[in-house]
Amino acid sequence: MNQLSGKIAVITGASMGMGEAHARLFVERGAKVVLADIADDLGAALAAELGENAFFVRLDVADEQDWAHAVDATTRRFGAPNVLVGNAGLAGSNTRTADLSAEEYQRTVDVDMRGIFLGMKAVLPGMVEQGGGSIVNISSIAGFAHQPQSPNIAYTGSKFAVRGMTKSVASEYGRYGVRANSIHPGAILTPMLQEAFSAEVQAKVVADIPIGRMAAPREVSEAVAFLASDAASYVSGTELVVDGAMLAQ
């Protein structure tokens, strides 16, 4: 159970849903984990539950100064981060393009795209200095093709961008020992999904999944842990799809 021993991980959106599952698994596997989120109470409570190898930092992923603070706090507590899990995301409303406000579009892009960029920008200097690291960004199957159940153009566009930005960093920083990969979940049973989709829509989604069910968040966490670990030492610039064969159809 020491798969992630020696890893110092910053996980964004870590207070609930997939982020919480990632944080729990990382601590279980031996990592030191910084739970970074805007949900102060939930994040602090989870960090306290996870014990001395976890602590909470308030982070708005769209704020560059917050990122500087988060990396500094991580370095002072555990050392420079050598793993970043870009998990924080905003789905937004299920709105057609012509009806989507520019304000909602920008809010989604700020979290889902700008947040990924700022996170990588913040941790890369430290990773280069220590001779390497692993970045795992959470995209979506919507990063390959717009899905009927995808909320809107801002979400789909951002998930495509995450895929491309991750590849760019993998190419630019591979020579420094930094790996970057994206994970593309399908239907994962999280609070965000349950909030975004009615029970009727959820049932329709399940009907289109060859495996016949949505995934538990921990099933994605296992993929994240693999890419963060040394077992994936030659895996970089790629996409790992965790979707129960939805894209295989």
TrEMBL record:
For the keyword NAD, the answer is: yes
Q: Name one GO molecular function term.
A: glucose 1-dehydrogenase [NAD(P)+] activity
Query: Which keywords belong to this entry?
Result: Lipid metabolism, NAD, Oxidoreductase, Steroid metabolism
A Pfam family assignment:
adh_short_C2
Q: What is its EC number?
A: 1.1.1.47
Q: Does the keyword Isomerase apply?
A: no
SUPFAM superfamilies listed in its UniProt record = NAD(P)-binding Rossmann-fold domains
**Which InterPro entries does the entry mention?**
NAD(P)-bd_dom_sf, Sc_DH/Rdtase_CS, SDR_fam
- Top-level EC class: oxidoreductase
- So what family is this one in? Belongs to the short-chain dehydrogenases/reductases (SDR) family.
Protein name as catalogued? Glucose 1-dehydrogenase
Task: Identify the species of origin.
Answer: Amycolatopsis pigmentata
